[in-house]
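Onboarding guide, step 5: your first structure request.
Type a short instruction followed by the sequence, for example:

Predict the 3D structure of this protein.
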Amino acid sequence: MKDEEIILAIQDPTDLDFTHHPHTQGLGHLEAAYLRGIKVHTTLAVSGEGVPLGVLGQEIWTRDLETIGKKHKRKQKETSEKESQRWLTAQQQTVINTQGKQKIITVADRAADIFDLFSQASNNNGDFLIRACHNRRVESELSYLIPTIEAAPIAGEMNVEIKRNSHSAARIARLNIQFMSMTIYQPANRTIAQSLPPVTVNVILATETDFPPFLVSAS
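The system replies with structure tokens like these:
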């Protein structure tokens, strides 16, 4: 990584499913209660040109079978008491392993839409690109993130190539781009997060408005 000016630290969890290996010991449950396996959270370092550079961090664990059926209680817990903490730990590992010598951008999907992560990355002078999941409270006349960004003026257009797959042919998607800076308020349902200051982020909305109808074939 030493020769790179920008490094994308791409975080993502995955499941190792051993449900069909009934004699395997020490497994936990996965997303469905009947599935058994191991959880893995990896941070992959990638150059700005998309070249894999190595693994910055990885955590492996199994879920306690006693937690099955208690999903509704997760919102009442602090981030440090949930699996969500692994996103923050991985971001901390990224800072340590890169020693702050390069520009680091944490990239993650919607499971990483965590206020504590935004706050921590900002304090570590780290940038992040995270797909939004929650319609958060923001400093705006419309009060919430989604209606606020949808009301922003269209700043431009861009074309994205959608490659062919088993369901559809390759095509070019035309996207309208909207963006603006917003200040996100702390979640009201968690004590520790309420002690953190609001975080200012840049929000980007890419919308495909002229998409073709999907063709469904019956077999």
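Each response can be followed by summary notes, for example: The first helix runs from residue 85 to 98.
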